[in-house]
Specification:
The protein has 233 residues and is an alpha/beta fold. It contains 6 helices and 10 strands. This is tRNA threonylcarbamoyladenosine biosynthesis protein TsaB.
């Protein structure tokens, strides 16, 4: 199985190829120039393993939530690549990928639930909770909320084991009231984790054709306003 994954969700640009259990990745921490960086990184990753686009089984990309612009860049790029070689795309949660990256960086967290969090601006965060047993499915519905509501939701939930936090969204002071055993704000989304999460989703048949790929913004009203501004230009 060969899956090429791309991500420009939040603060970084990365491309990774999962090929029969082995993963090759290019990762650059950058806030801009995603469009200029992505395709050369795709070429580099494919060259590393001696493959072409036609030899891939599928593509994978973060479906969100995350930066409006970042999501659109990666999704548009994947759509173009997938369409050119008639391959499907596996959409993966950016929050789930963040949690998997945290688990990879912190083996001492073992099988503990991880609360992934991205800054949604406007004093809100995108968040979800992921277990080692179901890494693609949040134990609480993925949501965009203010930090106080997140703290309340975590307190109202009975956890059978310690929980940890990961991601830059944890910087809000109000989240200090959350009952977590540790937080890593520096965890970023990697395409290698998107690729790994895409494997079981591909096996379950959740891939879509390029034209049907849609981002999950969570904050629909803000997305609609941005779309209206773009259309009016």
């Amino acid at each position: 199985m060969k899956i090429l994954a791309l991500d420009t969700t939040s603060g970084a640009c990365s491309v990774a190829l999962y090929s029969d259990g082995q993963t090759t990745e290019r990762f650059v921490q950058a806030e801009r120039d995603y469009t200029r960086r992505l395709l050369p990184m795709v070429d580099e990753v494919l060259a590393d393993v001696g493959l072409t686009l036609k030899e891939l089984d599928a593509f994978a990309v973060s479906r969100g939530p995350g930066s409006f612009t970042g999501l659109r860049i990666a999704i548009s790029c994947v759509q173009g690549l997938a369409f050119s070689v008639d391959r499907p795309v596996v959409p993966v949660s950016s929050l789930a990928a963040l949690a998997l990256g945290a688990r990879r960086a912190h083996p001492e967290w073992k099988d503990a639930p991880i609360v992934s969090m991205l800054d949604a601006r406007m004093q809100q965060v995108y968040w979800g909770v992921y277990s080692v047993d179901s890494p693609n499915c949040s134990q609480l519905p993925e949501a965009v909320q203010n930090p106080e509501k997140v703290v309340m939701s975590l307190k109202e939930t009975e956890w059978s084991r310690p929980i940890y936090g990961a991601g830059p969204g944890w910087h809000y002071e109000a989240l200090s009231g959350a009952q977590v055993n540790g937080v890593d704000l520096d965890i970023m989304i990697h395409a290698r984790d998107i690729a790994q999460l895409a494997v079981p989703l591909w096996q379950e048949g959740t891939a879509v054709i390029a034209e049907e790929l849609e981002p999950a913004y969570l904050r629909n009203e803000v997305t609609w306003q941005k779309r209206q501004k773009i259309r009016s230009k």
